[in-house]
Structure formats: C-alpha cells, structure tokens
Design goal:
Radius of gyration: 19 Å
Shape: globular
Oligomer: single chain
Number of helices: 8
Helix content: 25-40%
Largest sheet: 5 strands, antiparallel
Number of strands: 12
Distance between the termini: 23 Å
Order of helices and strands: EEEHHHEEHHEEEEEHEHEH
Structural class: alpha+beta
C-alpha cells in the first residue's frame, strides 16, 4: 500500500463567489515521492465558464504548475508538501483542502481520481462507469476515518428513503443532469426536497449534481432542492462533507 495526498485546483471567475470550475488535480505519493499534476484539455468548457478569460494565459499557467511540481532533474531530491505548496494560490486559482488516501501499489490512482474530478473534460469512453465512480467517491468520503452507514434511512412514514451515501448525520443524493432533459427531473426534485424537509431533524441532506451548464431548467431544479438542503457540484460537495464530518 502507498500513502497519497491530493488536492483539486479550482478556478473562480469571481474571487468572492463560491462558484468554481475544477481545472486540475495535484497528487503526491508520500511513499515514493512521485508527484503528478493533471489538468483540463477542453478549454471550451473553461471559456464557457468565464468568457472573459485569457485562454492562452490559462494554458500557460497550468502547464507551468505541471512543470514546477512534477519531478525532474532539478527538484527530484527536494522536499515537497501539497499543504505548503497550495498556500500561494489564493486568488482566482485556489486548491481545495488536501485529502489523504491509502492506495494499492498497482493502482492507477492518478488516472482514477482525475476521472472523478475532471469527468466532463473527457470523452464518454474515457470516463469511469457509474459503479466505478461511486467506488472512488466512497473512498474519498471514508478518508475522514468515518464509516459510511446504510444508505437506506427511515422516512416519516417508516418508508425507505434511498440515498447514495450516509456518513455521520449527512445524507447524500446525486442528481445527474448530463445529457438529460432537466425539466423531466423537476418532479423528482420536488419529491427529494419533500424528503429532505421531513428528515431535517435527523439528517443534513446534501444534494450533489454533475453538470456545468446553467440552463433555466437546471436552475429550477437547484432552487427546489435548495429549499431544504445544501446543493453543490460533486467536487465542491465532497469538500463540504469532508470539512463537516472531520
């Protein structure tokens, strides 16, 4: 087994806003010293997120981080700490909190966790399957040293309410909007908002969604869910949950 640490690099088009786009993931294998930085290649998504951004600058900026942190003949014997390194990023580009995991020596953890955080930067055939994605998200959540509970919780009428994960007093449900008609998810959102309200004395409900678009239908779904729960994009939601349960 190897001990690794990683942090996601987020871009905020407004330094006072919580809205951000995940643009890269920095990994450090504590056991071997290996360092890897993976970043987006689909800059059309970046341009859609911030149509005033200088894309050539962003490309150069991200390539510079990769050159700076990955091991080469100039830095192979230097001490490295993601926690210390990320302190210099405090403006539009900011790293998330550092997450520590144990991984198998033969696991391609860089590829696997990059696919969790930069999912929509990749073509469909490169993405993790739904079951693989849930497996790696489970590992991220349990990095807090808290065990996941049964994802079925008892509702107000003793019925089963099936969440994706329950960790501590936080119940998590995923909403997938990608390549779906968001308007058809409005009835489901209303049902889940009702359940979140019923369960508010037992659990803090967190809804995670996986789309970067901002369609009118998606806004409606988010507004419904926000009535009685926290609503985040997947990557920001994982950060929130880990901060809350730690």
């Amino acid at each position: 087994m190897s001990k690794i640490e990683y942090a996601a690099l987020n871009y905020y088009n407004n330094i006072i806003s919580d809205e951000c786009l995940c643009v890269g993931v920095l990994f450090h294998n504590i056991s071997t010293g290996q360092r890897d930085f993976r970043y987006i290649s689909n800059f059309k998504r970046f341009q859609a997120f911030d149509d005033e951004a200088d894309i050539m600058f962003v490309k150069t900026y991200l390539a510079g981080i990769k050159q700076q942190v990955e091991m080469n003949i100039f830095n192979y014997d230097s001490d490295f700490s993601i926690e210390n390194y990320k302190k210099r990023y405090v403006n539009e580009f900011r790293f998330s909190n550092v997450i520590a995991l144990d991984v198998a020596d033969d696991e391609d953890y860089v590829d696997n966790y990059t696919k969790v955080y930069l999912k929509f930067d990749m073509s469909k055939n490169q993405r993790l399957s739904r079951s693989e994605e849930k497996k790696y998200i489970r590992k991220i959540l349990t990095s807090s040293n808290m065990e996941l509970s049964d994802s079925k919780v008892s509702g107000a009428y003793k019925e089963n309410v099936n969440f994706d994960y329950v960790i501590g007093k936080i119940a998590i449900k995923f909403f997938s909007f990608k390549e779906k008609d968001a308007s058809k998810l409005i009835p489901s959102a209303k049902q889940w908002a009702f359940s979140a309200d019923e369960l508010k004395d037992k659990y803090e409900v967190v809804f995670l969604y996986d789309d970067d678009t901002d369609s009118p239908q998606l806004k409606i779904v988010k507004q419904i869910l926000m009535e009685h729960a926290k609503v985040y994009k997947v990557q920001k939601g994982l950060e929130y949950v880990l901060e809350t349960v730690s």
